[in-house]
Amino acid sequence: MADRTERRVTPTAIRRRRRRLLWWSLPVVLLALAFSVKLASLSLTAQDAITASETGLFDESIEASDALMTLNWFEPWIAYYDRGTASARAQSYNDATDDLSTALELAPQDRSCEVRVNLALAWEELGDIYTEAGYLRGASLIYDTALAVIAGGEEDGCFTSDEQEPTDPPQDPNENESETPGDQLGDAQDRVEGKQDALEQQPEQPGGGGDEEDADGGSSPEDDLQDRGDQAEQDRRDQEADQRGGGEYAEKPW
């Protein structure tokens, strides 16, 4: 029978094996460290965005929210929510509705109602601007979109007030913290529907003003040119509102 060769493990081999195990585990440790650092960084940046918005520094809040967009795999909806809310407070409603619409698509269902509140308010404010400018058809389309956002809250359970409690979103623009998102959406629905009814009671006045007649009761050539210019501007505004309010936004399955 052949002699069995005994394999002895020397202390040097043990140390070499330990070094190899440490080396192979090093990327995992570094990845975990990077993960924790990234979370801490995102938390601080999000707080900067909130603080800037609460103090009226909307541009700074938008910049801080921009920083949240980089390598944010964890809760990307927050960056769009914060930036959209800051844009709305800065009265940049087109940018606000774009970001808040994206936030609504990305947000988990238990936070979607809060996003809906701000998105509906942004559309409502944009509709108010159209109304004040006399672009009533465009305003009506935008109000329709606000109502569509609100109505989508039914599916998300935003109006189940018995189970819902006031929440603390990443950036809450509402002063009454005792109201639930469902309460706020209900209030917004009442306001927007009232504005829609008011639109039906007034004639279209492009540019927010009427046309003056000349002394003989007719319109002057200058007035005719102004009318045509107003109508062209009205058509442009209606088309823009149709694209933003009555197009892809209203048809999204919210």
UniProtKB/TrEMBL annotation:
* TPR-type repeats, residues: 77-110
Keywords on record: Membrane, TPR repeat, Transmembrane, Transmembrane helix
From start to end residue, where is composition biased (Acidic residues)?
A: 156-166, 210-225
Q: Where is this region: Disordered?
A: 156-254
**Compositional bias (Basic and acidic residues):** 188-198, 226-254
Q: Which InterPro entries match?
A: TPR-like_helical_dom_sf, TPR_rpt
Q: Where are the transmembrane segments?
A: 21-40
Q: What is this protein called?
A: Uncharacterized protein
